[in-house]
């Protein structure tokens, strides 16, 4: 074997979770945060003019603190993901969270200090050669500062948050751990499934009857505890709304949009495009239902695999997967290929299939050493190769920004999924092209459809639900019956009333509604996916795309999303045209799927 399935964490901090090096780093960071707080108290814009050397020192220190927290954070997360039973991880996580809160407080203080700087001095500051590269970020911080309350109140809110919004969020995890789904195993023997196992089978089990039988058992399991989940959701949202109100707004989408540097107008355009273009996806679902021997697909069939005769998929060894990604990345961008190779060679990836690992996959960057780490479980399926390509896309995004100041690397969630989806699309398409039989091709296109189905229909439903829920929550506590009704209506609207079954308890079963930061953990995914598709469509048209793609990625934390698209793609995101170019690519996949399956359903 050429490449190792296990990552190297020692180059980040040596000696595992109890690393002395890590402890020193955390202690130094704590001291640095306190020192920065003191410096801030003493800083005076007038006497620092006209060169603002003192301020440069302050902002440089803040960025160094953020990087130190990032470096420790990726290490602690990595150790915990690779060994979920390691008891020493949780205390380190708590320590890091505490440091994060302290750093946020200092950063809040700095934002408010900027508000005190008169406009003319502020303009003079931004013109300094060393501050110019972060001018956009400083302006953003100053705007944020205008909404902050006095230091004492802000510190009180963030302390209360630990037992408020953040606490309700982690309480959700404790509740989910108690959910069990009494069902039967594949041989029909009685069994008790955990929420995670049931979820995997509900969406991924190859047997349509098994999935159809599981759905009512799944819904019942959440019904049994619906009051507990409703309390949790109501209080988490209530805390958030009170926090917004204290900062002067009743518009619960204002903050999520601001976090994503996105205008409400753009978001509305996206939803219009999605709504006007979902019929072909509903047709696709009807065809899929027909292939499963049904008239209409149920909730449990949307993401289901299709097991057609002769659809045995290629099994990749890890080395083959690496070679496949490097090769196809290279067709778009030699620099992407080089970064992927570096990740494999330098052991940035933990991919081994073994017990005791966390589920899912992620990429995080190590800002102090300009490296990344990728976590996933590789079983050899084409889907795993796509996942790996997705995470390597994230790593590429980080790598092209590594020489920029930390603030300039702080891109938002909506653009965070751009490079990853881009990487994933390249490899998913290459997989379809490499298929040897029609059946194999059908299976792969079906797997590729998971993304558009999620973005256009499922996440659309979640956004509709969450919007209606927050509207109601502003007036009252929302009962479980009302939550079920809101969710059912949202799903029916998003899926065009086309499904035979729905999942009204998705408001309880979906973790994303319970994430404390950021709020509205849904629309940025849709944005990222469609934005990436639009770029992918452009990349296919233009021959030499690498340089302009990298230039775009480097600007992802340097301007509003609308300005980013205008500057690097020459498009207006508030108009449908750019989004429709991406939709066209999905339509091509569906057309191909329809053509290949035509003879199978007649
Ligand atoms: Zn991602």
> Level of helix content?
55-70%
User: Based on helices, strands and strand pairing, what is the structural class?
Assistant: mainly alpha
pLDDT < 50 stretches: none
What is the overall number of helices? 26
Bin the strand percentage: under 5%
List bound small molecules: zinc ion
Rg measurement, Å: 25 Å
Pfam families: Peptidase_M3, Peptidase_M3_N
GO biological process, one term: proteolysis
InterPro entries: M3B_PepF_2 (IPR034006), OligopepF_N_dom (IPR013647), OligoPept_F_C (IPR042088), Pept_M3A_M3B_dom (IPR001567), Pept_M3B_clade3 (IPR011977), Peptidase_M32_Taq (IPR001333)
Cofactor: Zn(2+)
Question: Would you kindly provide a brief summary of this structure?
Answer:
This protein has 602 residues and is mostly helical.
């Amino acid at each position: 074997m050429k490449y190792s399935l296990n990552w190297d964490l020692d180059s980040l901090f040596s000696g595992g979770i109890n690393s002395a090096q890590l402890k020193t780093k955390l202690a130094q960071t704590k001291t640095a945060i306190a020192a920065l707080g003191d410096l801030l108290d003493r800083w005076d814009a007038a006497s620092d003019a006209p060169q603002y050397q003192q301020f440069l020192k302050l902002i440089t220190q803040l960025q160094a603190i953020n990087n130190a927290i990032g470096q420790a954070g990726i290490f602690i997360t990595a150790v915990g993901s690779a060994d979920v039973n390691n008891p020493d991880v949780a205390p380190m996580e708590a320590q890091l969270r505490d440091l994060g809160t302290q750093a946020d407080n200092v950063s809040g203080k700095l934002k408010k200090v900027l508000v005190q700087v008169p406009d003319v001095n502020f303009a003079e500051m931004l013109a300094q050669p060393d501050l110019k590269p972060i001018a956009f970020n400083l302006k953003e911080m100053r705007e944020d500062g205008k909404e902050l309350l006095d230091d004492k109140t802000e510190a009180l809110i963030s302390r209360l948050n630990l037992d408020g919004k953040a606490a309700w969020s982690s309480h959700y995890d404790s509740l989910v751990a108690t959910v069990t789904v009494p069902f039967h195993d594949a041989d029909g023997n009685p069994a008790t499934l955990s929420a995670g196992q049931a979820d995997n089978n509900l969406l991924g089990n190859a047997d349509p009857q098994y999935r159809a039988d599981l759905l009512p058992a799944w819904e019942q399991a959440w019904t049994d505890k619906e009051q507990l989940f409703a309390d949790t959701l109501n209080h988490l949202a209530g805390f958030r709304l009170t926090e917004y109100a204290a900062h002067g707004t009743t518009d619960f989408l204002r903050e999520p949009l601001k976090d994503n540097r996105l205008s409400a107008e753009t978001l509305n355009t996206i939803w219009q495009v999605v709504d006007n273009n979902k019929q072909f996806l509903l047709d696709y679902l009807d065809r899929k239902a027909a292939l499963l021997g049904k008239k209409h697909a149920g909730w449990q069939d949307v993401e289901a695999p299709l097991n057609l005769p002769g659809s045995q998929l290629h099994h990749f060894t890890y080395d083959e997967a690496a070679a496949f990604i490097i090769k196809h990345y290279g067709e778009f961008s030699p620099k992407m290929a080089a970064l992927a190779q570096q990740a494999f060679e330098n052991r940035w990836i933990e991919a081994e299939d073994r017990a005791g690992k966390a589920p899912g996959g992620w990429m995080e960057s190590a800002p102090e050493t300009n490296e990344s780490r990728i976590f996933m479980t590789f079983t050899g399926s084409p889907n795993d190769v796509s996942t790996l390509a997705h995470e390597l896309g994230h790593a590429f995004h980080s790598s092209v920004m590594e020489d920029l100041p930390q603030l300039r690397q702080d891109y938002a969630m909506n653009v965070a999924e751009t490079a990853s989806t881009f990487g994933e699309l390249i490899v998913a398409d290459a997989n379809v092209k490499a298929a040897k039989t029609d059946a194999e091709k059908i299976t792969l296109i079906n797997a590729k459809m998971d993304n558009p189905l999620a973005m256009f229909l499922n996440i659309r439903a979640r956004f509709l639900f969450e919007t209606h829920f927050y509207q109601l929550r502003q007036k009252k506590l929302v009962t479980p019956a009302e939550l079920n009704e809101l969710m059912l209506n949202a799903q029916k609207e998003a899926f065009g009333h086309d499904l035979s079954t729905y999942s009204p308890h998705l408001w309880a079963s979906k973790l994303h509604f319970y994430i404390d930061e950021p709020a509205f953990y849904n629309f940025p995914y849709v944005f990222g996916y469609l934005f990436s598709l639009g770029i992918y469509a452009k990349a296919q048209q233009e021959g030499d795309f690498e340089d302009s793609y990298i230039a775009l990625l480097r600007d992802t934390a340097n301007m509003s999303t609308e300005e980013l698209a205008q500057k690097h793609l020459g498009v207006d995101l508030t108009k449908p045209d750019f989004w429709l170019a991406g939709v066209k690519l999905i339509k091509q996949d569906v057309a191909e799927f329809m053509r290949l399956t035509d003879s199978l359903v007649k």
